[in-house]
Amino acid sequence: MKKNQLLNCMKLTFLFLTISMLSFTAVASAQRVSITANNIKIENVLEEISQQTGLSIAYSNQVVDLNRLITINVKNSEVKNVLNQIIEGTNMTYEIRNGKIYLSSKKIEALQLPQAGHHITGKITDTKGEPIIGANVVVKGTTNGTITDVNGTFTLTNAKKGDILEVSYIGYISQNIRLTGESLLKIELKENTQTLDEVVVIGYGTQKKRDITGSISSVSNKDLSIQSTNNIQNLLQGRLAGVSVSTSGVAGQAPTIRIRGIGTLSNNSPLYVIDGFPTKSEIASQINPSNIESVQVLKDASSASIYGAQAANGVILITTKSGKKGKATVDFKINEGIQLPANLPEMLNSQQYGEVLWNAMKNAGMTPSHSQYGNGTAPVIPDYILPAGTSASEVDLSTYNTAENQYMKANKTGTKWLDEVYRPAQTTNVDLSAQGGGEDSKYFLGANYLKQDAILKWSGYDRFSVRSNSQFKILKNTTFGANLSAFFSKYKGSTGDGGAYQMAPLIPVYDVMGNWAGTKANGLGDSTNPVANLYNNKDNYNNNLNLLSNLFLEVNFLKDFTFKTNIGINYVNGDTKNFTPTSYWNKGDKNTLVNSLNTSRSKTSETVWDNTLNYTKTLFNNHTLNILLGSEAISQKYNYLYASRDNFIVEDLDYRYLDAGEANKDNSENGSEYTLFSLFGRINYQYKNKYYLSGILRRDGSSRFGPDNRYGYFPGVSAAWRLSEESFMSNQKVLSDLKLRASYGKTGNQDIGNYAFASTYTVDISTGSYPIDGTVNNVTQGINKESIGNPKIKWETTTQTNVGMDAGFLNNNLNLSLDLYHKYTSDILQRVTYPKTGGVASSPYENIGEMQNNGWEFNINYRNQTTKDFRYELGLILSGYKNKVKKLASDQFISESYTRTEVGHPISSFYGYIIDGIFQTQEEVNNHAQQTDKAIGRWIYRDVNNDGVINDDDRTYIGNPLPDFEYSLTGRLYYKNFDLSMFIQGTYGNDICFASKGGQNGTDFWADYFNKSTRILDTWTVNNRNAKLPEINILNPNNESGKVSSYLIEDGSYLRLKNLEIGYTIPNNILSKIHINQCRVYLNAENLFTITKYNNIDPEVKNGNDLSIGVDYINAMPLARIFSVGFNLSF
Amino acid sequence: MNNLKRYHNKAILVAAAIFGITLLNGCSDYLNKNPLGKLNESVFTTKDAVDKLLISAYSPLNGYISGVWGISSGPDNCFFSDLGPGNIHKGSTTGDLGDLLQIERFTETSENGRIYDKWTLVYGAIERCNDVLRTLNDNTISDLNDADATEIKAETRFLRGYYHFEAKKIWNMVPYIDETVEDPQRRVANDKDIWPNIEEDLAYAVSNLPETQSEPGRPTKSAAKCLLAKAYLFQQKYSDAKVLLDEVITSGKYKLMTNYYDCFNPAKNNNEEAVWQNEVAVNIAGASYNRSQRCSDLSFPNAPDQPNLSGAGFNQPTFDLVNSYKTDAQGLPLIDSYYNSDFKNDMGIESNEDFTPDMTTPVDPRLDWVVGRRGVPYHDWGLHPGKDWIREQSTAGPYNQKKYVILKSQLAEYSYNNTAKFNSMNFNIIRYAQVLLWAAECEVEVGNPEKAREYVNMIRTRAKNGYYVKLGEDAPFGNSQLAANYKVDIYKESWAGKSKEWLREHVRFEERLELALEGHLFFDLVRWNIAEDYINTYINREKTHIQYLNGVTFDKNHRYFPIPLTEIDRSYKDGVPTLTQNPGY
Questions:
Q1: Closest Cα partner for A748 from A208, A263, A212?
Q2: Which one of A552, A933, B89, B515 is most buried, by most CB atoms within 10 A?
Q3: For residues A862 and A971, what is the distance between their CA atoms, to the nearest angstrom?
């Protein structure tokens, strides 16, 4: 009996990683359970059974009285015995089938004969055709209803054509069916995977969704798998209320994610926790999305405070798939797509370019002339730009020589350089995985290959990844598991357009002999041929090897205790090589006479060891208590090595190794390390599934702070009340679930680099050496201050209050949730931007400010199945916040090129001059305040301070980059075997500073021979008085191009059809013959269209610097429109 | 089953042990992590280490410090001194580097990035000087005796005085920052005249620097005297300046080099004429780095057929400068008439069209060491081909700068990667020729015109006796025909009895001829209080050639440059900016 005693100890334990909503295929009779409890609710017993056996339980709550109390005492007993005890003395019966326990009423075994009058019969099955027993069938708006029998059939009297039948069953999506006169209905119910019983990961543990007291957004595998995309953050865009994602056009580059606004001034990146491994590195974007089981985002301070010092910007928990019990299933997915560059801007052609130049010079009082366009009254496009003035008869190809006598024809219509550098590009994504498990082990194995060519020529991204997740029950009370993964990625080629915007249209891509043409001819600027640049870069690469693994051991003991230890390692090895060949096609000082190679290696290793002890106990039947205690030690090391050489006698790939270079050997190395040690605890308490209370405390010690301020404490408390469990709510049917939540907590931020507390001095030849001894090839090395430390800095703390509501209507077919939050960050850590009088060493971090975000999030989902063949789901997410800087040391504001961050204003507000149109008459000119170069045709700058002079003091706030709200709309339609999903996303009310319009080389002002946007054709002339731009003038009067002004500010609101997918699932009856379980084929389109007033390529501006949010520079990789086709196979 | 139970107990024990170990772990040195591969204050306890800190204060002399481009921040000050008042045009193409066009047209605004670069360099360097002084005050330096400490301090204060001087002459109202400023951001108001502070630093240097230095980069007592004298000159304290300049001149420490060209030859760095130079080095052993003069990156002719020579084609000498080298039959400058006709040039002529340079009009031979022009050997790089080496002759004129170009034959030894613009020619921050001319200025003011003539004649004698540019195979130093009718001679007539105005005009004209493109003209015009007349007159003459000068006028406010807007924005303290913008901006 010792064995039984031991097993007795193990009753009702927590299985953190149980994923109860997966369908199990195990044979039920083998399941054994142990339960000992006095006066326990049926509901709780069923829950225990479900947990211990993995069987899910289906019932109609009309049949089963969940609140009935029983006393039960079984040890390692078959499920049947327990179930028999439960139904003893009731009119219930049960059946175990397909991994489910069906509870139903005995009385329906003897179905009453239909009475006289109208009656209909029907059969209700699940998607596999198995009958559903005990489902509710009610004529809408009446009490006329019944439940299905053991065969899933029902008969209903007094139902007529036009009536609506409501069919509902716990664990399945309810349906409303309009009667059409058919007498024999066939109704298929879909399993509801989004029930409140869904388990979500909450940090060092899991919790049922319905028990959550904080604000946590969740995306499960089901949502992730329907669409094809290559990284997890792209998938998160618009899926989660309060989570803003701006993606980079460059494959493999991590997008910027902001959770609940901009909480601080310097680093707003969230913490990622991947299978329990916390990291701030951007590895999440490397993870293969199809290996992901679920993603949770901890948004409010009470849920995030379990991660304490790292959690102020929110926490994204990523759980990868683990195996399922049952026979092995293999999934194979393939996706093939094409990306098309979208929305490329229009640039001037050769003729326009010449005319604009002519006007720019004429208006400056100069006689137009240009080395290529001549010096006539109008510009004349030459035949040859090199040698200048050559006529066709003078071309003697025998004298052709790239170095001295290159023949280059002018492109009379104009080279469209953007079209030359961008191209349609292919993507391929192949994914293979297998999973399965037995009594004591589970496994998931996956491999993925992604090839994503860039829309830039000769550039692209490759990624290969493998994963092995497994769990073994090595003893009855001990589980041992491992998640092992490796990603190898390579970006080859260029990430920018090589200068395509600025290249003059007159220049051809190739000279007459097919060699690269360029700016060798006079008067065409110094830009280098962008196509040649991309070609030169084609073999340059950036490789990354990422090994992310963790092992855990979990021991259950003394009935209620679980101890878990988890060790994780993340190793990232970066490897880049850049070769710059010699070139002959460019002019002037951009001539590259010397080729050079530089190569670098970086390695980052992060290790985490955490230990948790968990205690769970139900006391006096209704009080459930869960206590977690834990410790965590994080350590991170970084090392970077760089070397370069010049003068490679041969440029072939095989020689692009340092040893083959002759001159200027150079190298450097640097390193850093960081440690964090934490202790934490959490208490969850609930009473009768009605009242919830939770408390968290974490203490973090960080090596990033000096000894005096090293430790920080981060508490969190939250409470929830499920009103729907109250008896006064039991008599209504509209509201199926209602929960009110409130929380308060503190989280920290310490992302300030590793040594902000210490001043550092560096030995650097470029910044601190001097040839004091007067020799011409030697320097004396000096030491200069590199950064100023501040030993006094302390934790940045974010305090957040959150109130929320979750409600389910119509049997949870309509769900909505609302959150309101107040987020206040104090002691904001920021490098104070010193004036240069403070020197050029990096200025120190200080706890300089306070900032507030008040926000709201609204989420509504509706799903409905109107007929057997048609169902749909709709989701709308709205969120917004108001940001305000509340305090900033004595500086009062932080000034960046286009923005100012000042107390009383939102962070990164655009700051500059307001333009009130263009002077049309001399009278207007005379009446206006004193303004440099004021004249008819010039911009009127507003005299903001009314002092009669336009100067720096007339700058003011001219735009806000933060939207009033962000929104997304998801729609999913299922008809028979077809499915259609659509995802719309956008922002409203934000401004963008289109910075690259201005500046000395901006696209909208003529300066040097850089090409310009066609917007420059809309400059003021006597015949075009309503122009946006002032009269064109090569002398740039009043530095109009260089002043930050309202001209740069544009409305950034947009609406984008981000994704559209149509899929078809091949019917089972066809597939089963060829031993395939499931096969779905689909067509997908990404970024199909965008509605916006914004003039640049993409209103989704990615700017990692939060003090310059919404500042858009043109050379970002443009948005691609992607069309793809794919199929998913499961067998 | 006992085994299992035992195991079970063991598991608990192991769990408890692990838990305990991790708790203990947190108490150890786990959280003490100091910077890797970086030095901290504690290294500055030896003389050697402090000297290395001092070296880093010299380092910005070439115009480079973190965060600046360097083209406008070097000691040559070409864009602040030679660009506006008529020695050079910006060059390249009209729109290229509009910040510079603003400066040339006197329309610069406080957003001007080139002005901000200079500010950044100057104050970055000053902070490094103060780092040295604070270290000397705060640290115990084991092997440093008082004399050594004083000398380090003297060098440091010399540099601090020099950098403040740069700021003073460019912006006038600037903050003076010393090692006692407590605000870590060094926000100091610019409401005081800082000449007394500059004088104090330089006077300390004069008192405490040695007469000779083993390393030529370090300033000597004489260098400090010259710099202090210069500070006096900027305040019209001529008699004070004269005392110092006389001491330097009578010491016999310096002499003019035989050839004017010797001052611009990397093979003769740190020569006898050099009072204080910015030291530069290229091809530094073991490092892929050159410390050449930053400004010269831009100022080399844009010569596609000579890639080793080619640069961005900025800094094109003006018609006015070239004309000013014309002389009369006696070899004296045409101070009142040089501008009446243009010296022959190839404006508007293609390189493949014929052009013969003027071989008859007498010119000062210094012209062809300063200016590159068509038909004259561009050192040993060949005859200047005219338009082909000019980016946009129609807007910026036909001339190239030549003073800072090294010989082609010097490429291997004195340039980085055989690129002429990255060369190791030191820049003369103070050279003896200028010291003599300053002395001449003083003599004029104190009433010794003949002494002034003597000094001016020393300069002209050297110009006369030195190399003239020659044509032919061994150009420019061979035995063939001269490239022009070179004619320069001394003032033989007595200057006694000449009016002060006449005397000033002649000394100042010589200063322009001798020191063109060396970063002085504009500051000199301002200190002589003649900038408005001089510059507007020049513009009126030059605009017949350079169209973008039409409508340009120079007003008094432009004597000083705008304080960078970013600096004012960042100088706020308790709600008000500590820096005040100069009038007119």
A1: A263
A2: B89
A3: 10
C-alpha angle with apex A757: B33 to B117, nearest 5 degrees?
125
DSSP string of A165-214?
EEEE-TTB--EEEE--S-SEEEEEEPB-S--TT-EEE-SSSEEEGGG--S
Are the C-beta atoms of residues B223 and B61 closer than 8 Å to each other? no
Sheet arrangement for strand A1049-1051: A1049-1051, A991-994, A1111-1112
Cβ-Cβ contacts under 8 Å, A586 against chain B: none
Q: Are A919 and A937 in contact (CB under 8 A)?
A: yes
Chain B, nearest residue to A767 by Cα? B65
The DSSP 8-state label assigned to residue B211 in this structure reads: S
Is the pLDDT score of B27 beyond 80?
no
Look up residue B323 and give its two tokens.
Answer: 């004309």
* SS3 at position A868: coil
**pLDDT tens digits, A933-977:** 999 999 999 999 999 999 989 999 999 999 999 999 999 899 988
From CA A488, how far away is CA A983, in angstroms rounded?
31
d(CA A1019, CA A1030): 5
Asked if A884 and A904 count as a contact pair (C-beta separation under 8 A), the reply is yes
| A384-424: pLDDT as tens digits | 998 877 888 888 889 898 877 889 999 999 999 999 999 99
Please list the residues that pair with A466 across neighbouring strands: A447, A486
pLDDT interval class at A13 (50, 70, 90) = very low
Question: What does residue A918 show for φ and ψ, rounded to 5 degrees?
Answer: -125, 140
How far apart are the C-alpha atoms of B340 and B334, rounded to whole Å?
Answer: 10
* Residue B472 clears pLDDT 70, i.e. is over it: yes
Q: Would you tell me which residues 476-495 of chain A have a C-beta closer than 8 angstroms to some C-beta of chain B?
A: 476-478
> How distant, in Å, are the alpha carbons of A202, A278, A285, A293, A487 from that of A318?
10, 10, 11, 8, 16
* pLDDT tens digit sequence for A179-213: 777 777 788 887 765 555 678 888 888 888 878 88
Which residue do the tokens 């080793």 mark? Answer: B308
The answer, yes or no, to whether the previous bond of B216 is cis (omega within 30 of 0) is no
Digit-coded pLDDT (tens) for B37-50:
899 988 999 999 99
Q: Which of B431, B423, B459, B436 is nearest to B518 (CA)?
A: B431
- Contact yes or no for B41 and A933 at CB 8 A: no
What is the average pLDDT across A270-288?
87
- Spatial distance between the Cα atoms of A79 and A70, rounded to a whole number of angstroms: 16
In the structure encoding, which two tokens stand for residue A441, read together? Answer: 């082990």
* Neighbouring residues of A826: CB distance < 8 A, sequence distance ≥ 6: A796, A797, A798, A799, A850
Q: What count of Cα atoms within 13 Å lies in the side-chain half-sphere of residue A975?
A: 4
Q: Tell me which residue has tokens 């003395």.
A: A89
Q: Is A658 on the interface with B (CB under 8 A)?
A: no
CA diameter of chain B? 126
Is pLDDT at A447 greater than 50 in this prediction?
Answer: yes
Mutate to test the interface with A, among B18, B21, B39, B152 (most CBs of A within 10 A): B39
Q: Do A843 and B55 touch (CB under 8 A)?
A: no
Alpha-carbon span A158 to A749, nearest angstrom: 65
Structure tokens at B132: 């040295």
Cα(B200)–Cα(A222) distance, integer angstroms = 77
- How many beta carbons lie within 10 A of that of residue A971, not counting itself? 15
The residues, any chain, with a CB within 8 Å of residue A203's CB and separated by 6 or more, are A273, A298, A303, A304, A306, A307, A315, A317
Question: Which chain B residues have a beta carbon less than 8 Å from that of A6?
Answer: 1, 4-5, 8
Close Cβ partners of B332 (under 8 Å, ≥ 6 residues apart): B489, B491
